[in-house]
Amino acid sequence: MSQCHMLQYLARSTYPCWGHLAEAVRSAPERLQFTRGLQEVWSVHGRSVLTAFDLSPFPVVCDLGGSSGALAKECTALYPECTVTVFDIPEVVQMVKEHFSFPEEGRIHFHEGDFFKDRLPEANLFILARILHDWSDEKCSHLLQRVYHSCTPGGGILVVESLLDEDRRGPLTTLLYSLNMLVQTEGQERTASEYCSLISSAGFVDFQFKKTGHTYDAILARK
Ligand SMILES: C[S@@+](CC[C@H](N)C(=O)[O-])C[C@H]1O[C@@H](n2cnc3c(N)ncnc32)[C@H](O)[C@@H]1O
Questions:
Q1: CA of 32 to the centre of ligand 1 (A)
Q2: Residue 223's pLDDT is what?
Q3: For labelling, which of 51, 126, 136, 159 has a CA lying 20 to 30 Å from the CA of 62?
Q4: Pick the residue with more confidence: 70 or 2?
Q5: Is pLDDT at 79 greater than 90 in this prediction?
Q6: CA angle 96–177–101, rounded 5-degree value
Q7: How many whole angstroms separate alpha carbon 71 and alpha carbon 13?
Q8: Has residue 5 been placed in a domain?
Q9: 88 C-alpha to center of ligand 1: Å?
Q10: Residue 86 · residue 142 · CB < 8 Å
């Protein structure tokens, strides 16, 4: 049976509503709720993405777009030697300092900036969790090149995303996330090969990925 009417309804009613979500997220209460929502997942899935590879050779970590620092907290708990700089836009960093608590004080620092324009801190490991899926291939390449330049030789990049199967027919959850990205952002979910191509083009080598069996998967590459 034709799905024409539902598609028209989604296009004419639902889709325009979603088009205003970015404005909603820009309001302070919505931003706080979004950030609280983002952090919750790492109490469940943080360990699986941070132990997919041994990250102990990387004591100086920068979590780009690290939001509330939830993944940074998991990282400092799992790797006692590491310190993490959480890099995010000023509005998010200020809100996090006001509303979130940090018992690991001293090992987690916040840095305000725009990762497309401002100087990135030097680090042994850059974590990009749910960052690349927000952006077009062009913007991902630009960001990855900037990360490559700030990464110490022998350092690495850990990309945390939900990976699409190579035939792009699943997993279903990731396909739905990808549709969501199409509506809300300029990005999409990608396959491991697509990430490999983007990350390798920026200069990184030794691309490896691990499907964790949970919602988010892990990719590691080295400089
Ligand atoms: C989808 S959230 C992911 C947050 C976190 N990494 C996680 O997985 O929970 C994207 C994050 O990137 C940040 N961000 C977006 N554009 C940015 C930019 N130009 N510079 C720095 N941070 C940015 C947002 O403020 C937000 O915290």
A1: 13
A2: 98
A3: 136
A4: 70
A5: yes
A6: 15
A7: 36
A8: no
A9: 6
A10: no
Q: Which of 45, 99, 133, 214 is catalytic?
A: 133
Ligand 1 lined by 129 (C-beta under 6 Å) = yes
pLDDT above 60: residue 14: no
Structure tokens at 14: 């639902």
* Structural contact between residues 195 and 189, judged by C-beta atoms closer than 8 angstroms: no
Ligand 1 proximity of 32 Cβ (cutoff 6 Å)? no
CA dihedral over 189, 193, 197, 202, signed as positive or negative:
positive
Report the CATH number that the domain containing residue 79 is assigned in CATH.
Answer: 3.40.50.150
Catalytic site includes residue 45: no
Specify if 12 maps to a domain: no
Ligand 1 centre to CA of 134 (Å) is 9
pLDDT, residue 61, reads: 98
Q: Residue 86: pLDDT above 90? A: yes
Q: How many domains does the chain have?
A: 1
The CB of 65 under 6 Å from ligand 1? The reply is: yes
What one-letter code names the amino acid at 220?
L
Q: Which domain holds residue 66?
A: 28-222
For 190, phi then psi, to 5°, come to -130, 165
